[in-house]
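Why do we care about 3D structure at all? Because function follows from shape, and shape follows, mostly, from sequence. That is the central idea of this module. The next example makes it concrete: a single protein chain, its amino acid sequence, and then its structure expressed as tokens.
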Amino acid sequence: MQAILSSPSLLRNALLVDAIGTGATGLLMAVAASLLAPLLGLPENLVFYAGLLLILFSGFVYITANGQPISRKAAMAIIILNALWVIDSIALLASGWVEPTRLGYVFVVAQALVGGVFAELQFIGLRRQA
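And the structure:
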């Protein structure tokens, strides 16, 4: 694990994996919103538009990851947006606005955890490039 965290390409790799995972999740959510919504206990519009947002975000992350060099401002914006995703995910569950199923809770919490891990890895990678 220490070797991964000290890698000079940590930021680029974390951004690329984020872009791929986020894009795949967003595509699934946008395309299958009508199937996922009842399983998750979340409004179909929420699943669909969150999916579209993730697709757009993944494009930004991918473009940033392929920059030569990686833009520090863009990387910091991605870290902040990932952190906001975590906060918003937890706020959604705590708000009472939705009544997710158990699978819905797992889905939202898992996305929050993954977003948090990406934010942390990207922040470590950004600091190491300074």
